[in-house]
Amino acid sequence: MITNEQVMEALKDVTSHDGKSIAESGTLQGVSIRDGKVFVALLADPIDPSAMEGIRAQVDKAVRTVEGVTDVFVSLTAEHAPGSAPRSDATGQAKKQRPERKPDGDPIPGVRHIIAVASGKGGVGKSTTSANLAVGLSKLGLKVGVLDADIYGPSMPRLFGTTTQPEINDNQQLIPIEAHGVKVISIGMLVDETQPMVWRGPMVMSAVTQLLREVAWAPLDVLVVDMPPGTGDTQLTLAQNVPLSGAVIVSTPQDLALLDARRGISMFEKVHVPILGIVENMSYFVCPHCGGRSEIFAHGGAKAEAQKMNVPFLGEIPLDIKIRELSDGGNPVVSEAPDGPHAAAYMAVARSVAEALQTGGEASRKAPVFVVEE
Ligand code: ADP
Questions:
Q1: Whole-number pLDDT of residue 270
Q2: Whose Cα sits closest to atom 19 in ligand 1?
Q3: How far apart are the first and last CA of the chain?
């Protein structure tokens, strides 16, 4: 088994631009070891990450000298987001402001559409919806990928029932794991779950950028990004920097005022990302014994709000034990029981999303008729 100490020993002679070892200078942000694969995070200047290429190559070479290492993936993280205020240096002077640019707003070669699945808060079924939407889109004949960017609780490996670690190809790209007809990459595959990792907002951005750019996604029709829940700075930066075709907002009906969902919509509108629509999850309950339908939480809230907000309503998904049980077992219901009523509900959402993408999200470009005070 490869140990952290072995990797650190191999890296001791790799120096940073200041001449100190990368560990001493703080350039080395973290090491994570999975089987024979070693993931190394280096701190880079977000304005000029190319300046790190030499060090990155040395790190790669050094780690490969450790016995048992089969693959190395060196990621570059940044301390402040591109375009954000620069940090002050030790003298308290702000560093020279460099021209603002948005390096990550460019499309990804071979990926036609990237859509975000978001929710105002956690626990509303955003990830379950992402997984089933992705499988649903693939059942419509589209080539689909899922990028699990939910740093607070990456759940795609569980939802897709995969424990495999991604391999790295000759171009130093991660090869996504194929499951249920979909290509999957999760931030959870890269970090060691036994070592808690503290994410700073820009680090998330940088990690997600790498998962967009340094993964062999192509060719894809749709890449579904499962966003971290909430509408804070991290989410805003993500929405701003990932070249999104549109966003799907997941909400539950009991959140009657749908305040959280409104915040989500407002966030995407702010950065000019079209809202593809709202999905009402846990909309109604179907009794597994008698088949009777109970509207436990004032069902229909999302549909009414969507109308008020002038954004499309994509459909309602029942609260059903089968959805949870299959999800927990790594089998999205759309894949496992494609002819059942649950799959039909997700397929209706998938069709609406596919249509909205085909028409360039025209339906969703209408201006919202509300203003949210921050
Ligand atoms: P989020 O991503 O919003 O945090 P998850 O997708 O992880 O939420 O779902 C939270 C929990 O609710 C999971 O246990 C999941 O299986 C369950 N769940 C989600 N949607 C449904 C549904 N429609 N019916 C039953 N259980 C659901």
A1: 86
A2: 125
A3: 50
